[in-house]
Amino acid sequence: MTEEHHHNHNHSHDHDHEHDDEHEYITLIDEEGNESLFEILLTVDGQEEFGKNYVLLYPTGLAED
To answer: Alpha-carbon distance 37 to 64, whole Å?
Structure first.
């Protein structure tokens, strides 16, 4: 006597949503060689107007000192 177990996992997890929770990070090194991790809040394309791109950063951690 055999029993067949059919596991139908029809969970409707939607993985195609916009990834608003994905953050970009950048590591900056100061004059003393200390690395600091910053979160990129906003990137402004100013190449046409200013010849530069601007990035708004926010420190992810407070300085230890």
So the answer is: 13
Kindly report, residue by residue over 6-43, the tens digit of the pLDDT: 556 565 655 555 555 688 999 999 999 999 999 999 99
Give this prediction's pTM.
0.50
* DSSP E strand stretches across 1-65: 24-29, 35-46, 52-59
Nearest-angstrom CA–CA distance, 24 and 10: 33
Q: Is 36 buried (19+), middle (13-18) or exposed (0-12) by CB count in 10 A? A: middle
